[in-house]
Write a structure and sequence with these properties.
single chain, 559 residues, alpha+beta, six-stranded antiparallel β-sheet, four-stranded antiparallel β-sheet, 60% helix, rod-shaped
């Protein structure tokens, strides 16, 4: 009966489906959600949602109890921007900014440069070495207990040479199980592979691993008679620096200001504070050392240049002195005045000497001429001839006058006239002899004057060259004197600058921690746990109970 009924129902359904007609009395299909039915389903199976909420909130509770809080440490640095440190904009960037086509302003460029220095590999590596940050240590004392991180209060100290820490290829994890009976179980892993497991009865202990040998020793912070597990991980300096960069945040306080925020997050507040303070101090120390070294180098350069200039000035003075000595000159202007005055005197002397020579030659020719044998000698003393010559000429002229008087008054032979003729003849011979000597001496004097004239002319022609050469030597000395005076002033300024070097960054706020941890955020975690519980409960209901509830009416109809 049932089989026949089912076969008839199936054939009828197939016919209805094939014909495209609905069965009489069949309920119309609907794509809308029946919220009332859905709510009834949720209320009927409330225990599923309650269980999901209990599970998710319980996991949230365990997570909050187990998760170590992450704190944020803050610090503020105010930059002292000195333009003499080379931080000003270049001419090209300033011109570009004036046309509005540049990128960052000069102040922003300085801020970015300083932030780059703060996060540089060199500085952070030095921070890691000086603060012994290659190792991170913590302990746990229960299933639901948070990790307790150590910094400078570790019960165990793990040491390895710094050269190995800078080059080690993998991290090394240590686990020391401390027993109350004084026994210690040591496990060492490298690259997540166990490389050592042993029981240690006495410290210090050298843990030999494939990568390095680590020296483990106890400290004064070890509490004996208690059970706890000590964990530590040792990484190379580059790895620690890389991890530090992920936790370090360096930003500018304001686009228009000179302040820089240095922030770092992590689970150990003392370690964070020491790290941030060390970053600030090392940054300031490096900038201080760089500025001091730069200014000392400038001062040293100036002092060396002053020494060289002093030697050059002495050399310049020697050149001027030697040139003056070689050319027998003190001052070109005075030398020119002296030479021209001397040339004038020489020319005057030459004229007088040449005139005197011509007079002597005229008198000689007159005395030697038969036609002028009884004529008076026209002679005017110049003061250059010998003292006897004018007197002899005067006596000669007087005898000629006496002769002329006697000849006009005496007729025929006269003893007096013969005596006067003899005297005139003797005196003429004497005057000719004197004139011959005077002419010879005058010619010699004229030749000397001519030589002096040539010397003066040569000296005059040399004066432009001498003046030009001395001008060059004086100019060279003047330039060196000016540079020397300028460098003396700059040396004083450089010495003052060296004495006034100060830290480039003023630490406004030393490192301090927030009161509340930044992670995990408890309200957010509880909200996420609540939402996951509801979603999980609704999902389970849809998977396990929706089909069952939908089949129930069909089964009743079939029955």
């Amino acid at each position: 009966m049932n089989q026949e009924h089912d076969s008839k129902a199936l054939s009828s359904a197939s016919q209805d489906k094939g014909s495209g007609h609905k069965r009489p009395g069949a309920a119309p299909a609907s794509d809308s959600i029946d919220f009332k039915k859905l709510a009834q389903n949720y209320l009927r199976h409330w225990w599923v949602i309650a269980g999901s909420l209990l599970l998710c909130l319980g996991l949230t509770f365990i997570y909050l109890k187990k998760k170590a809080p992450i704190y944020v440490v803050h610090s503020t640095i105010m930059l002292n921007q000195d333009l003499d440190e080379g931080q000003s904009m270049s001419g090209i960037s300033a011109l570009a900014m004036s046309f509005g086509i540049g990128g960052a302003t000069g102040s922003q460029a300085v801020m970015e440069d300083e932030m780059t220095r703060i996060t540089s590999q060199t500085l952070l590596s030095q921070v890691v070495r000086e603060n012994h940050l290659n190792s991170m240590a913590w302990t746990t004392q229960g299933l639901l207990k948070k990790k307790v991180f150590y910094y400078e209060n570790e019960p165990f100290r793990i040491e390895v040479p710094q050269q190995i820490l800078d080059t080690i290829s993998a991290g090394t994890a240590f686990e020391i199980n401390v027993k109350s009976d004084g026994k210690f179980n040591l496990k060492v892993k490298q690259d997540n592979k166990k490389v050592l497991e042993t029981e240690v009865s006495r410290f210090p202990y050298n843990a030999r691993t494939p990568l390095a040998t680590f020296r483990i020793d106890t400290t004064g912070f070890l509490k004996k008679g208690t059970d706890f597990d000590f964990y530590a991980i040792v990484n190379s300096t580059p790895v620690v620096v890389q991890n530090m960069r992920e936790d370090l945040n360096v930003v500018e306080v304001d686009k228009k200001g000179n302040g820089i925020y240095v922030q770092m997050d992590g689970p150990c507040i003392p370690r964070l504070i020491a790290t941030v303070n060390s970053i600030n101090e090392l940054y300031n120390q490096q900038r201080y050392d760089q500025t001091l070294q730069r200014r000392k180098e400038s001062l040293e350069f100036i002092e060396n240049r002053l020494l060289n200039l002093y030697s050059e000035l002495e050399e310049s003075e020697d050149k001027i002195e030697n040139f003056k000595r070689e050319n027998n000159i003190v001052d070109p202007t005075a030398e020119a005045e002296y030479i021209f005055a001397r040339k004038g005197r020489i020319e005057g002397t030459e004229t007088e000497t040449r005139t005197q020579l011509e007079i002597y030659e005229m008198i000689r020719d007159m005395l030697q001429s038969p036609k002028a044998a009884n004529s008076l000698i026209p002679f005017t003393s110049t003061g250059n001839e010998q003292e006897g010559l004018p007197a002899a000429i005067a006596a000669y002229n007087e005898l000629i006058l006496q002769k002329m008087e006697l000849e006009s008054s005496v007729k025929g032979q006269s003893t007096t006239l013969d005596r006067i003729n003899q005297q005139v003849s003797a005196l003429r011979s004497n005057i000719l002899s004197t004139l011959s000597r005077e002419i010879q001496a005058t010619k010699i004097a004229l030749s000397t004057v001519g030589n002096e004239q040539k010397t003066s002319d040569t000296r005059i022609r040399e004066i432009p060259f001498i003046e030009k050469k001395l001008t060059q030597l004086y100019r060279d000395r003047e330039v060196k004197n000016t540079i020397y005076a300028f460098l003396l002033q700059k040396r004083e300024e450089a010495e003052i600058a060296v004495a006034q070097v100060k830290p480039y960054g003023e630490i406004v706020d030393t490192a301090y921690s927030d009161v509340e941890p930044a992670k995990p955020n408890r309200p957010v975690c509880w909200a996420v746990g609540l939402a996951l519980g509801l979603i999980l409960g609704a999902g389970l209901m849809q998977i396990f109970f929706r089909n069952k509830d939908e089949k129930a009416p069909g089964e009743e109809t079939a029955a």
